[in-house]
Amino acid sequence: MTxxxxxxxxxxxxxxxxxxxxxxALALFLFKDxxxxxxxxxxxxxxxxxxxxxxxxxxMGRPALEPFKLSLINIDLPAQFFIHISTSFYFALVLCTxxxxxxxxxxxxxxxxxxxxxxxVKAFALAAFFFYAGVLVGYFLLFPLTxxxxxxxxxxxxxxxxxxxxxxxxxxxxxxxxxxGVFELPVVAALLSKFGLIYRHTxxxxxxxxxxxxxxxxxxxxxxxxxxxxxxxxxxxxALYEVSIIMCxxxxxxxx
Length: 256
What we know:
By secondary structure, this protein is mostly helical. It has one domain (3-183). Helix content is 73%, strand content 2%. It has ten helices and two strands, in the order H-H-H-E-H-H-E-H-H-H-H-H. The protein has helices at 3-30, 32-39, 48-59, 79-108, 114-152, 165-182, 185-194, 200-205, 207-221, 227-247, and strands at residues 72-73, 163-164. Strands 1-2 form a two-stranded parallel ribbon. Helix 4 runs parallel beside helix 6 and helix 7 packs parallel to helix 10. It is globular, with a radius of gyration of 22 Å. The protein starts with a helix and ends in a 9-residue tail after the last helix.
């Protein structure tokens, strides 16, 4: 195929991905109550993480968590409508990630040898798995902890929190998509190891340096600057670093 024919194939891939993304976003837009019941679930004390924490505290003979119910406000006239649209799009982006990855696979697979295709299939499958793992960790762990901490934190009792809808949605999708992205670290490490650029011994050697670097990255990507959110993002990042070590090849004997 010529250069322009490759561009035409890429255009078809992007077009199919965009059509499916828009269709799913429209469907989610129509099922507003269902979609926002998922988005706003962490703002209620009955969320699964809070109930699990109460259960663990009960086993240890400790009192349960304080009642938690976050009320949101809206201060911009068109904000709720546009947030409805943007939420539908981001939700669709999360759901359509496997399809988008498959479309990218159909574009690159003809240029690969059979052995490379098998490796690429594993890479795409792992990428989708780790993306959703990151999304679930962000939704069930990172965002609820961040929300409960920041939503109830007060410098003085006289200063009450009034959380805007825009701030809630922005923080929600920032943390969810960021965690989905950073959970791709083991896949990237495995690919670099496959190409002979890094090995398990290299990552093990620089564990301490990696911990500091990952904390700096966590400070950059977190939407808020508080130490609690920093550690809530930094610790999973370091756990991913350890998973990356496991997924990397050992150093070849002839290069030791």
